[in-house]
Write the structure tokens for this entry.
Amino acid sequence: MGATTSVHRTIDAVWRMESAKVIAALARYVRDVGLAEEMAQDALVAALEQWPVEGVPKNPGAWLMTTAKRRAIDQIRRRENFNRKVEEIGREIQEATPDASEGIEDEIGDDLLSLIFTACHPVLGTEARVALTLKMLGGLKTEEIARAFLVSDSTVAQRIVRAKKALADAGVPFEVPEGPELAPRLASVLEVIYLIFNEGYSATQGDDWMRPELCAEALRLGRVLAELAPKEAEVHSLVALMEIQASRSKARTGPGGEPVLLLDQDRGKWDWLLIGRGLKALERAEALNQPPGPYYVQAALAACHARARKAEDTDWQRIASLYQVLAQISPSPIVELNRAVALSMAYGPAAGLALVDEIAGEKALQGYHLLPSVRGDFLVKLGRTQEAKAEFEKAASLTRNEREKTLLLQRAAACD
């Protein structure tokens, strides 16, 4: 029993590492990511049946690849294009054994990149893109994705099934986009990865302030993408941003799991190895000498905080100017709200409050808990504590995260 459990753990670990490569390679042949995943799952089932009996093969990744490709040949034989497809992939596995090396690294980079662009295709809704990316590229089980986003297993399963059908119905090609299509498609990929990271970094709902497993998965996907697309500055910029933000993880919660805001954090708990990696990724983005994109500016902002060993050393004037640049590149009320915070730190709370009051009527900020939270902070600094109390109470009523609600109510109580 113990030996079987150990083998199952090994299979689970191998699947996490190899599933994306297997699915990507199969999708190149069958041109259907849904079908490719089914074949890969068949190979996983075969491993669960055979490895506890026969032992774990010397090259488990190659075993999965070989087994899955044999499933592909069975499928292709049932199609009209039998001769062309069998000639294409049949030779490479005809004499292979499950332990034989398939050379799966050959062309795997292009296959993985194609899989990333397919899973994040704009034809899919945001939630579908996130679920499909975590399933196909992260190797996460449906229940793991559901647990991370606090939804039911059936909800995630339906999203994944519908996403595969939508890709098939739309005839989305399994390829890396080129020319004018590349920029918007890449933006979609980066958006999905950063959404996954942010849900882990500041959970929008539930009892926990952070979900580290999602941050780790987003970072892994970002690093893989940076290796596959080394000439895209925004990819390196996103990695830099996530590395630097992730470096603060241990300092962002107190002993009881309560949130600790940036300026109150013990910077001795920051992970300076991750900060170093983030700054190097930012340097790689700068070296490409491409026009600054939104992730580059956000990474530069994060770097300003990372370079300040003490909160009072932060260069707030530079941060305010960077937010001005970000507002021009990617204008939004959220960016303006962050710029208001920077202005208050650089030039006083009255400057920040003036901008907040200017944007308070924006539709995108209605129901957004950070608007009254930020406004309350400015009012406290201006000595208008009763007004601040009402703002913090309003913010607490709007957030769905219990840890954040507790913090906001404590700030409201402190106004008395």
About this structure: The first helix runs from residue 2 to 30.
